[in-house]
Design a protein that fits this description.
- There is one protein chain.
- The chain is an alpha+beta fold.
- The chain has ten helices and nine strands.
- The chain has helices at residues 95-100, 122-128, 132-148, 154-161, 170-181, 185-196, 200-216, 224-230, 236-247, 251-256, and strands at 2-6, 16-24, 31-36, 43-47, 56-57, 66-69, 76-81, 84-91, 266-270.
- The strands form two sheets. It has a five-stranded antiparallel β-sheet with strand order 1-2-8-4-6, covered by helices on one side. It has a four-stranded antiparallel β-sheet with strand order 5-7-3-9, with no helix packed on it.
- The longest helix has 17 residues, at 132-148.
- It starts with a strand and ends with a strand.
- The relative contact order is 0.16.
Length: 271
């Protein structure tokens, strides 16, 4: 399996983290079981169905050839064959509204075909591209054109440009921001959910969960109380509750069974 990231043009870095591709061309066809965790970064995913079958959900439904994935607040499971070619975009949390002008909450925990939002045949252009590098160029121009015609929210941009919600005292920092810009907390919460897809409080919990994955990857079970306090939880039980909500596993199960994919925090199993 070959995973690769591609740099983003400087003009797009406020909205796009990176482009990526994930390819495998094996002589033997086997089924991979992918268990993905909650994820605060939206994505666009294109799957080359000429070289493999589509990504399949546990209910048997196939993912569209090109689809958007909003912020994920729950763990999910999918399957695909060991021969595949996927290309994707990892967005910053506020990018879906900034680029497409939609209420981001409509895409939270959803993976609709991009044609549901965009009617300009972008899927066909990605299918016609001869390489992943060519797809990067196609989407860079596409996103730049979309961003250029939309007015951006300076307050939301400041939140993500400064990493304001990555700290244990994120709610206090957000409150100070509303006072400085002279808007009410209710206005801030409404704008945040419209442009990100979840409340600021829930986003802060997702940020802490993501950080906990990094810490647990090198931790031992007996250190959970210390980890909980480091992440800003009142106690270990609150930490365990959030971790299981967002991953479907307890921290102990995670420590015992780590096998994480490159693009998203996932457990990968052979069937």
């Amino acid at each position: 399996m070959i995973y690769r990231q591609y740099p983003v043009h400087p003009a797009l870095r406020n909205w796009i983290r990176y482009f990526w591709s994930y390819d495998a061309h094996t002589p033997e066809v086997r089924t991979l079981h992918i268990r993905s965790f909650a994820d605060r970064y939206p994505r666009l995913i294109y799957q080359d169905i000429h070289s493999s079958t589509r990504i399949t959900e546990t209910n048997g439904n196939c993912k569209p050839v090109c689809y958007l994935s909003g912020i994920d607040t729950i763990p999910t499971e999918t399957y695909w064959e060991s021969r595949f070619s996927h290309f994707g975009v990892s967005f910053h949390p506020h990018a879906l509204h900034a680029i497409f002008g939609i209420h981001a909450g409509e895409l939270t925990d959803q993976t609709p075909d991009i044609s549901w939002i965009e009617k300009n045949q972008i899927t066909n252009r990605l299918i016609g591209a001869k390489s992943h590098a060519a797809r990067v160029k196609i989407l860079e121009k596409y996103f730049f054109d979309k961003i250029s015609c939309r007015r951006q929210d300076g307050i939301i941009a400041e939140i993500f440009g400064t990493g304001l919600l990555d700290k244990p005292d994120d709610e206090i920092r957000l409150y100070r921001l509303t006072k400085r810009h002279r808007i009410s907390e209710r206005q801030m919460q409404r704008r945040f959910k419209q442009q990100v897809g979840v409340s600021a409080r829930k986003f802060g919990r997702l940020s802490r969960f993501e950080k906990s994955l990094e810490i647990l990857a090198r931790a031992q079970y007996g250190h959970l109380t210390d980890i909980a306090y480091e992440l800003g939880y009142a106690d270990q039980s609150h930490f365990i509750h959030d971790f299981k909500l967002f991953s479907g596993l307890t921290p102990l199960e995670f420590i015992r069974n780590q096998k994480i994919g490159s693009e998203s925090s996932s457990f990968i199993y052979w069937e």
